[in-house]
Specification:
Number of helices: 10
Shape: elongated
Strand order of the largest sheet: 1-2-3-4
Order of helices and strands: HHHHHHHEEEHHHE
Oligomer: single chain
Number of strands: 4
């Protein structure tokens, strides 16, 4: 008996589809990823078929049941989630289904990864004060960068944010925020971050539409360099952060905000 979805899976793997990119193409699956993803997706398709449910009509309750059924360590569960989450992003774009049953609510919590420190509310408030120029002048661009981290955005999401990703929704500013697992999520930005963006925009360099936070020549920021440099330089101005500033990481600031609730600005939330 043919298992629904397997033909589509073989097509997806054969074409080398991976995480969606901004230009509508996809980053190719590399190394052992296709093998692992293919095994995980095939296992899901057989499991959901045995349950008498079409893979194109499954919802998050079925996805949760399968993830729990498979069990395993957090990293294994995260791999399975990423495999199905990415596959269904493609399936939605191909009109095979309307919704992604493996939505972000089901992403395993890896907040306690070794080497990623947690910053308490006092440290996060001190960082906000430093960004606000309490101890030394801070440019509107650099202040916006820090507020983005305090809102829970990681460097990859910050540097991929474009001006046309922002839309007003009543009193809320919404943004299409890039996700590490692939695709984007529509999120409501915390009001303090939205106000910081508005303050920065008159000083922004570069074409519109284009990158929201730009280099001094109007280009897109390097996610691996600029956020970290700006974070450390800004934090070093605050007496409470002077000693730790050289070791601060943007990912740790975003992680502390999103998973530990220590940000004084509030965080971006799903719409």
């Amino acid at each position: 008996m043919t298992v629904p979805g397997l033909d589509e899976l073989h097509h997806w793997l054969a074409r080398g589809y991976g995480r969606p990119l901004r230009d509508g193409t996809a980053r190719a699956l590399q190394g052992t990823t296709p093998e692992h993803y293919g095994d995980d997706i095939a296992d899901w398709l057989r499991w959901i078929h045995a349950a008498g449910i079409s893979p194109w009509h499954a919802d998050h309750t079925h996805a949760t049941a399968w993830l729990n059924h498979r069990g395993g360590a957090a990293r294994s569960r995260n791999r399975r989630f990423n495999a199905l989450h990415t596959f269904y992003i493609w399936a939605v774009t191909e009109n095979l289904c309307r919704h992604n049953p493996f939505d972000e609510r089901l992403r395993p919590d890896l907040r306690d990864e070794p080497g990623l420190p947690v910053h308490n509310a006092t440290e996060m408030t001190a960082l906000m004060q430093a960004a606000d120029g309490l101890y030394a002048p801070v440019t509107p661009r650099n202040r916006c960068l820090i507020y983005a981290m305090l809102a829970g955005l990681r460097p990859g999401a910050i540097t991929r944010l474009d001006t046309d990703d922002l839309t007003p929704r009543g009193t809320t500013t919404a943004a299409k925020v890039w996700q590490k697992g692939g695709g984007t999520r529509l999120m409501a930005l915390p009001p303090l971050f939205a106000l910081t963006i508005n303050t920065y925009l008159p000083h922004r360099l570069g074409p519109t539409p284009g990158p929201l936070i730009t280099t001094r020549t109007g280009g897109r920021l390097d996610a691996h360099v600029t956020p970290r440099t700006v974070l450390r330089q800004t934090a070093a101005q605050h007496p409470l952060l002077t000693d730790t500033a050289p070791t601060l990481l943007p990912d740790a600031i975003a992680n502390s905000a999103r998973h530990h609730g220590t940000s004084p600005t509030g965080i971006a939330t799903d719409l």
